[in-house]
Design a protein that fits this description.
This protein has 184 residues and is mostly helical. The chain has eight helices and no strands.
């Protein structure tokens, strides 16, 4: 274990609570619930500060705690509103299988996948924002708009070899940025 006594608890709350609240609101759309989960996250983090191994940034660690709390909230909400056993059977002409009424995209795994994708997209967008403007445009055209190389070269008035150099360098910058965020 590392010594985390040098982490100032007041600074931890001041420095990260707004970010955590914003993160929670992006997932929950309920301010009171988001505040509660952020508060729970901060209390958990402060009480478990000695377990923080500094293999990632403090904000990343806090966000992962909050993410788990959000998933736990959804898991509890999902079990709280499950159908009774009688809904497994057909009654009065209604379909009897409970999954038919739940839809195919409402499983806990898909919720966790969605959170993970959203986190990755947020981090990727942040890293993309650090690229030079021309590189951002080239990368966005190539991978987001899925334009062909010839069209990108015309739009940005660059040669095809320059296009591939920009894409290669942008990928290296993005890789380094994401590695720093995730502390791989």
């Amino acid at each position: 274990m590392t010594n985390n006594s040098e982490i100032d608890v007041n600074a931890l709350v001041d420095d990260h609570s707004d970010y955590l609240l914003s993160f929670a609101m992006s997932k929950l759309k309920d301010l009171d619930l988001a505040k509660d989960l952020v508060q729970d996250t901060l209390v958990s983090a402060i009480t478990k500060l000695e377990t923080f191994e500094k293999r990632s940034k403090l904000r990343t660690w806090l966000t992962s705690i909050l993410n788990r709390k959000i998933i736990d909230h959804w898991r509890k909400a999902e079990t709280r509103y499950t159908d009774p056993v009688s809904s497994f059977f057909q009654q009065e002409g209604k379909p009897g299988h409970w999954l038919d009424s739940k839809g195919k995209n409402k499983t806990l795994e898909t919720i966790e996948d969605q959170i993970s994708r959203e986190e990755t997209n947020m981090e990727l967008a942040d890293c993309l924002g650090k690229l030079p403007d021309k590189w951002k445009g080239v990368v966005a055209s190539k991978y987001l708009e899925e334009k062909d190389s010839e069209e990108i070269c015309k739009d940005f008035e660059i040669t095809s070899s320059n296009l591939w150099v920009i894409i290669h360098r942008a990928k290296l910058v993005l890789r380094d940025c994401l590695q720093n965020k995730w502390e791989l």
